[in-house]
């Protein structure tokens, strides 16, 4: 009898998860399409195989985040603290992956910025040496150095603009990721609250029956 009840709970949770997903997809304000799919908390499901081994195959929805949460809390065989630990560990790994990608992007940007600056400085020097190799009037000399100063100011301004654009892009990506992570943690917390209640009720019933 208990097996049938547990089976019904698992089925109801999976169906409820699908309905909730449909509603939230229609009204969610989080721009999930702006978050790279590789940061999805459902991406590394293989790491949870041991914890999910007792969950019926039909309840598993590959690459679905809500299904992953439901599966973590479907059979009442795992302590709530352990379930939370597993989920937060997955979120932590996705955050580490995101930070690693942002660090790599910054390093590449810095290298290109430095390479462009060195190339510009080299070109300016070559042009200047070529100009000074011949005798010119004071007026031409003044015009030449004014032109070099203007080119240097323009180049520096362009690099500042590129840096500002890069930093703005990084901030937007980080905000999108953190908004996404917060949304998933909030969803997990709601399910985990219900799971904890059911876990406590199960343990209480087992103690009352002498098991």
Automatic annotation (TrEMBL):
Residues 95-130 form a coiled coil. Keywords: Coiled coil. This is Uncharacterized protein. It comes from Pseudobdellovibrio exovorus JSS. The lineage of its organism: Bacteria, Pseudomonadati, Bdellovibrionota, Bdellovibrionia, Bdellovibrionales.
């Amino acid at each position: 009898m208990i097996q049938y009840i547990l089976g019904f709970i698992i089925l109801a949770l999976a169906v409820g998860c699908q309905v909730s997903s449909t509603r939230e997809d229609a009204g969610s304000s989080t721009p999930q399409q702006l978050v790279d799919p590789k940061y999805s908390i459902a991406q590394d499901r293989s790491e949870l195989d041991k914890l999910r081994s007792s969950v019926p195959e039909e309840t598993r929805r590959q690459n679905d985040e809500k299904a992953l949460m439901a599966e973590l809390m479907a059979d009442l065989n795992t302590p709530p603290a352990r379930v939370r630990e597993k989920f937060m560990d997955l979120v932590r790994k996705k955050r580490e992956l995101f930070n690693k990608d942002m660090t790599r992007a910054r390093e590449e940007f810095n290298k290109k910025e430095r390479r462009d600056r060195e190339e510009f400085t080299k070109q300016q020097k070559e042009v200047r040496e070529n100009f000074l190799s011949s005798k010119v009037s004071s007026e031409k000399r003044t015009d030449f150095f004014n032109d070099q100063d203007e080119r240097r100011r323009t180049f520096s301004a362009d690099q500042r603009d590129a840096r500002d654009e890069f930093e703005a892009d990084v901030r937007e990506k980080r905000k999108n990721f953190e908004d996404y992570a917060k949304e998933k943690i909030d969803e997990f917390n709601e399910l985990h609250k219900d799971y904890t209640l059911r876990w406590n009720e199960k343990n209480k019933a087992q103690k009352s029956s002498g098991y």
